[in-house]
Here is the input.
Amino acid sequence: MRLIDSHSHLFLEEFAEDLPQVMERAREAGVTHIFMPNIDSTTIEPMLRVCSAYKGYCFPMIGLHPTSVDAGYEKELEIVAEELSSPDKYVAIGEIGMDLYWDKTFRKEQELALDKQFRWALEYDLPVVIHCREAFDCIYKVLEPYRNTPLRGIFHSFTGTREEAARIMEFSDFLIGINGVVTFKKSALPEVLKNIPLERIVLETDSPYLTPVPNRGKRNESAYVKDTLIKVSEVYGELPEKVAQVTSENALKVFGMLK
Here is the structure.
């Protein structure tokens, strides 16, 4: 059974002490690919170092995370642009998006940064990986003008409503990322998922965050994508092997790696 973790931050310091063991547990769980989203200029080097050490297993993205957008965001974007100019270095532009949960101070700057990175995604023919927190309508407004373009990607860590899922599905080349939140006791995601075709979702962990049941309270890691798989299989009434196959193909397709 092949599993893909479409969103994992294994390059963060939380994994500094035991990364080889973390990777080994992921392999034992059946994980064949781990996709790593960038945060800002401070994380590029550690992310690339991990992806280089586990070449062919871990795959880097480049982008500016919305919570790193501030008054100096244009300088950060210049670094992203420079990184993008190296051919075939990155598999996606991410993690990008908008986050109005903590702070709305740089809302306009977040919109501008998102739009610019959408344009780069089209220029370089790369998928985008979108972070959305308390900002769905704002992101949708920035995304709307790209409706009839080849823009494609993933709405990562989706926790939205049935209506929001339906609006994402209007964009035929966008997928919905499901992680440990679906296993949480009070999560509405199982009900929302019943209206989303299996062909439109990918699995992820968002390690070290959002650890699924039964490991809640522990640091998340890529091996735990299997716990999310089990819950998603229950929701769809499908065998785990089937859900693993479909979601893995979905991920490889959006990242341009489906053979």
Q: What stands out?
A: The chain has one domain: 3-254.
